[in-house]
Structures are given as C-alpha cells and as structure tokens.
Amino acid sequence: MKNDLIVLGIETSCDETAAAVIRNGTEILSNIVASQIESHKRFGGVVPELASRHHVEQITLVIEEALNKAEVTYQDIDVIAVTEGPGLVGALLVGVNAAKALAFARNIPLVGVHHIAGHIYANRLIKEMAFPLLSLVVSGGHTELVLMKEHGNFEVIGETRDDAAGEAYDKVARTLNLPYPGGPHIDRLAHEGVPNIDLPRAWLEDDSYDFSFSGLKSAVINTLHNAEQKGLSIDPKNMAASFQASVIDVLVTKAVKAAKEFKVKQVLLSGGVAANKGLRAALEKEFASINNIELIVPPLNLCTDNAAMIGAAGSILFEKGKRSKYSLNANPSLDIETF
Q: Cβ(141)–Cβ(167) under 8 Å?
C-alpha cells in the first residue's frame, strides 16, 4: 500500500518557469527552475508579455524534466499544486491552465496555492514548523509579517503601505545605474561601503507592524540628485550601505517586536529578498540572543521563486481537504487570509 504523498508543484507567477516533485511535503525529489533574467535584463525589469511567452515555451519542458529527475511518472503523482496568485495575470494563467489540463487528462486532484504561502512553506523543506510562528515575508512585491497558529492558517499582522522592500531595492539600484535585478548588486555594494549617509526609517505608529519604504526610496533619489546639482559625488558603496542599513533596521526591529509580543516558537524568513546576506546576518545576530525563539532561514535556492515551495504548501492544503475545481483561474490579487 502506498503511504507517501507525491505532489507535482507548478510555479509561473512572474519570470521563473518552475516545476518540482515533493514527497510528504518535506522532501524535494526534484526542483527545476527556468529563469528569464537574461531576457528581461535589457529592459531593466520584468516585461509581462515577454514573461508569459517564455512560460508558454518552457512549461512542458520544465514539468517533464521535474518528473524525469524525480524518477516518477504521472501515475505516481497524487496531487498537482499550482500557484493561483498573486502575480502577473498572464504568467499565472500559463501555469494554472497547464495544471488544469494535466489534472483533467490524468484524473489527478488539483490544489491552487497562494504564492506567499509557498514562500512561507519553503521553510518546511528545511525544518518542521512549530506553532505559533511568525514569518517575515520580504520579496519584490510583498513585505509582510504573517502569524500562523496552525497549518494553513495565515493572519497578516503587518504589510507594506506603499513600496515593498524588493521594489525599493530595484528602484534605488536603477538610480545607482546598477544592472537588473538590483537587489543582489546593492547587497554586494553594501558590504563594501560604510553606512555614513543619514537616511530615514519609517516606523509609522508605535503599535503598527506595517512597513513603508517609499519615503526611504525618495530620500535616496533626492540625496543623489542634490549632490549631483552641487557638483558633489556620493560613493555608490556608501549609499548602498546606508540604504540597506535603513531597510534592515526596520525589518528586524519589527520582526523581533512581533515575535516577542505573540510569543512565537519560530520566526521564518521568506521571499526573494530573504537571499539578502545583510538581512540574514542581522536576523541571525538578533535572534541568537533571544531564548525560546528559533530562527529558520532557507537556503538561497528556496528564497527566490521555485516550485518546491508550491509543492510543500500544496501538500498541507491537500491534507487539510482543499481541492480546486477546473474553474480555477489566475487571481493576481489573491488574499492569503481568505484563499
């Protein structure tokens, strides 16, 4: 009798075409990602129509490669999990329709997954979750603090009011004439510079766990432009270091405060910006001195968009009884608390 739950995960929310095979929600049998960075680099950002076209070209190949590497066939797959949203609608549609076609043709159950839930559950591929827990989600389009009291239950206690941290990184990188994607380049420069430029921290109200990085982004741009008008030069390394110090200060301070207030057992770092070395180091340093709260930081390959995280989240949702109908559609504004 078969005891293992084998999940095929599919992710196409932005500019990575990804498929993975996960066993029992915790073991990666394969995790294939076809990146589009080189195609979008010359435009300085993701072009939605181009992303969708690449997904169409790659989706079948990536799924087949994931199955082959995992050494399984469709007869071994118990459920297909696919990113339902949020993301670019055209990109999402490619993955959703591929998943629905396979589910229908092979008579396999289908589960739609929230993209951010996937990022959170990437951590379960490293360490089993212990509740209650707090996830600091930091990606290109999202900066959130998500409280979880049990599997599949998500409560957003803090979110961005304007620019997400990842967006601020990319916009500041463009101002510094750094290549796309800008985040890794700022992180690299920050470690070579000195944070000697006074930049703001948006704390908002005393009791708020929300984030705001629009003012910080504008302060960086204005500082650079004012210096240029005066004929002065600012070392990009020092600006990168000062900008990153401001972002990390706010993220870490609010995460620590929330973790203590809600008496969580674990803090999970999630999302693409979780690959930032400065943020990882700051969190590890802060939580090393806090008893009874375990910090979990995923490896770099599980921080950026991938399908293993979708398979991991889909495993839990399937076990909790969630099933999606063939009417499943892409939902670019899907709410994590109600999906």
A: yes
